Here is the input.
Amino acid sequence: MRELPKTCLVGAGASGITTARSLAARGVPFDWFEKGDRVGGIWAFENESGLSPAYRQLHINVSRARVEFSDHPMPDSIAQYPHHTELARYFEDYVQRFELHRHLRLETGVRRARIRDGTWEIELDSGETRHYDALIVANGHHSAPRWPTPPPPGEFLGEQMHSHDYRDSAMLRDRDVLVVGFGNSACDIAVESSMAARSTYLSVRRGAHVLPKTMWRWTYDQVPGLEYALGRGIGIGPFGFQLPWRLRQWWLGWGHRLSVGRMDQYGLPAPEHDFGATHPTISPRLLDCLLRGEVEPRPAIERLDGELVHFTDGSAARADLIIWCTGYEIGFPFLDPTLAPVGGRNEVEMYWNVFSPDVPGLAFVGLLQPAAGSTMQISEIQGRWVASHLSGEYALPSKAEMGRSIARQRQRDSRRLVASTRHTVQVEQFDLAWRLRRELRRGRRRARRYGPALSARAACRAGPEDAAQPVATTQRGA
Here is the structure.
């Protein structure tokens, strides 16, 4: 019998959990490492890893039905928009149900991962070194805060912090707070600040469409027909097709205008882009605060001057705390930068943001920002895809074909999305699932034609120029 590749899985957040389930289900041998003291990743509040950006009142802005894994439904007792404690408990139950703990080592970080003699050499924080055929990176990309570059000119005499370090409204009490950004974290923190601070300002550089959590009688992401507007194909097999992207976005934008109205009604700048061209901001509570005057919108910062912040419209506001909600840098500190280079626009050259075309045996799960759907369910799709490859059911295309696919995706995104570091790994769940079904059929035909998937060791020795060519399939265990 063919020996499957011994695999190292890094990270026990939502992406790592569902990937572990897929590896175990297909019999792929793997070891699983998590730096924190428990599973859950960013949803493990005050995790000992120090990497979680969760704050005390954090609720996910995706409905329960879009969060749960397909093989472990969430109980009805969980709220429609769960609190981080409910999600962390759900993830723990998932790991227990499928007995995945036997693969997992908590409080064990990966210090360095490199290729030596055709195998992955993994050095752990403990100093121990292990060897594997394949490496799956599932530790997320919300641990390295991105600060404004360049920072605003001038000197600020108050305190500055990144949203990654925000924990609860006690940090805001009786202060004059300026929140910078217009993503979901910025909106949440501005709302919490409005209930604790003396004054709250929200600096918005670019307009966005703020979405509600309900539309008519459904949660926003459960409106009938929505999944078709978000990219689910219509029809079966070769007869399937998708609605044109612009038609889908017009449909969604029309529903948004009916339910929410124009953004300038709330004092916000009108978006200059089409609906769906940026990552969605979901915060009906912010809209309420704006209408009540509890949060004052301001444009981009022009300069800092002691306790005053000057804005591009000529106005100024006094603040003693600035919270920068400016996102995160993609990075893999334990990987040699040459193995997974990150471009200047915070982008990676990966096949569907999962497989490295240059380094066989290297895959990423959860390297995404969901434009529609949830990280959990998209990661479940990706994890099954990676496990299918490692088990030999699916073979990747050649390096040249993967390169062409990456270029096509870049071009496709440039036509649809606002050019921003925020959107370089944006993924739509239903669009991904629809397109991946076709790719899986092609990959299974390649696997039948050329033989099972290579181990990382064999692939590195053979060279990655054409990963779908027939080669020996002997695998090496650790």
